[in-house]
Amino acid sequence: MAKFKFNLQEEILDYIKNFPNSSSKEIHGSLDTNVVSFATIKRIIQILLDKNLIETKGRGKATKYFINKGFDVLYSINLDRYFEKEIDERKIYEGFNFDLIKNTLCSISIFTKEENEKLSNLQNQFSENISKLSVSEFNKEFERLAIDLSWKSSQIEGNTYSLLETERLLKDRETASGKTKEEAVMLLNHKSALDFILANSDYINPLAVSRIEDIHSLLIEGLGIDRNIRNRRVGISGTNYKPLDNEFQIKEALQDLCLLINTRESIFDKSFLVLILLSYIQPFSDGNKRTARIISNAILINNKYCPISFRTVDTIDYKKAMLLFYEQNNISAFKKIFIEQFKFAVETYF
Asked: Which of 167, 194, 287, 294 is most buried, with most CB under 10 Å away?
C-alpha cells in the first residue's frame, strides 16, 4: 500500500467532524484525488466504522457519515504525547462528567469487532484449557493467579513487597523484613477478597452498591481506612480532575454504574467498565482502584471467564491510562491494557 505524507484516518475524521452528513464521494473530493483513490477512501471509512469512530445514515449511494457519539471516548490517544504537557498545561474535564455513565457509555460499543473477536477467541481457549483440569488443579492455578494479582494490585498502590515476598506471605504467612505491617495487611486482604469471590462467585450478580461496599470493606480491613461512601473531598495525585464530593451524588453515580453493568450483555464490557468507572467515581476515601480490580475480576469469575492478574502491566502505564480517562474520559489506552492483560492471563494460567 502506498504511504501518504498525512494520516488518512485523521484527515477523514477531521472532514466528517467539520462536514457531517457527507457521502464517501464528498469525502474523497476533499482530498487530493491524484494521490488517494476512491477505493482507498472506502477502505479507510470501513476501518473507522469498525473502530466505532463514525456511524452511517442511509444505504448504498445515499449513505452519509457522521462522527460517532462516543468518538471522544474511543479515539486513540498517544500516552507519551499526551503527557508531554505538564499537569497545569493539559486541557481536561476537571469535574465529574454526569453524562458519561447515563448517556455516552450506555449507547456505544466499547470494543471493536476485531477486539471482540480477539477476546472471544482467547476466552474459548481458556474454556478449553479448564475443561481438562480437575478441581484441585484449577484451585492451584487460581492460587497462583491470586498471588500475582495481590502483588501487582498492591504494587500499583505503592506496596514495596516483591512477588517472591508476596508468595511467602500469602502461602506461609511469613512477613518480609523491612516492610510495614500495613503492606502485609494490604496483600492479605487482596487474597481474602479473592478467596471470598471464588467461594461466592455470584455475589456481585446483579451488581449493587451494597455489594461494592462489602468488597471494599474486605480490602481495607485493618488499614485504618473509612468504610462506606465518603462524605468529604478527595484529591488524586498527578491530575487536576476533581471527583464528586457530595455523598448523595456519589451514591447516585454508583447506582448509575450498577444499572449500566447489569443491563450490559457483554461480559468483557461489564468487567472493563467496572474497572475504569469505580476508579473514576472514587466512592471511598481510599482503596478505590483495588476494589475496581477485584470486582472487575469477580464479574469474569462469575461468568466462568479468565480472571486477570495484571502481572506484566507497567505501573506507570496503568496510572497514565487511568489519568487519561479521568481527564479526557478516553478509554483507548486502558482498553489496550485490558486486552493485553487478558491475553497474558489466558496464556499464563490454567
From this structure: 294
pLDDT average, residue stretch 292-315:
98
Residue 29's H or E segment, with its range, is: helix 24-29
288-297 confidence digits (pLDDT tens): 999 999 999 9
Query: CA 347, CA 129: separation in Å to the nearest integer?
Result: 10
Average pLDDT over residues 18-25: 93
**What confidence score (pLDDT) does residue 33 get?**
65
Residue 8: pLDDT band with limits 50, 70, 90: confident
65 bridge partner residues: 22, 56
pLDDT of 32 reads 72
Question: How far is CA 140 from its chain centroid?
Answer: 27
What cell numbers appear for 1 in the block? 500500500
pLDDT at 3 over 60: no
**pLDDT tens-digit map of 32-41:** 767 788 999 9
Among candidate residues 267, 249, 226, 221, the one with its CA nearest the CA of residue 120: 267
Query: What is the spatial distance between Cα 163 and Cα 149, in angstroms, rounded to a whole number?
Result: 10
Backbone φ, ψ for residue 161 (5° rounding): -60, 140
| Distance (Å, whole) CA 231 – CA 94 | 19
Helical pair 288-302 and 135-156, crossing angle rounded to 10 deg: 160
288, with CB counted inside 10 A (0-12, 13-18, 19+), is: buried
pLDDT digits (tens, 9 = 90+) for 111-127: 999 999 999 999 999 99
Diameter over CA atoms, the chain: 71
Half-sphere exposure of 203 (CA within 13 A, CB side): 21
**Residues 157-178, buried b or exposed e (16+ Cβ, 10 A)?**
eebebeeebbbebbeeeebbee
Euclidean distance between CA atoms 172 and 191, whole angstroms: 13
Beta carbons of 257 and 266 less than 8 angstroms apart: no
Peptide bond before residue 20 is cis, with ω within 30 degrees of 0: no
Using a pLDDT cut of 90, give the percent of the chain over it: 91
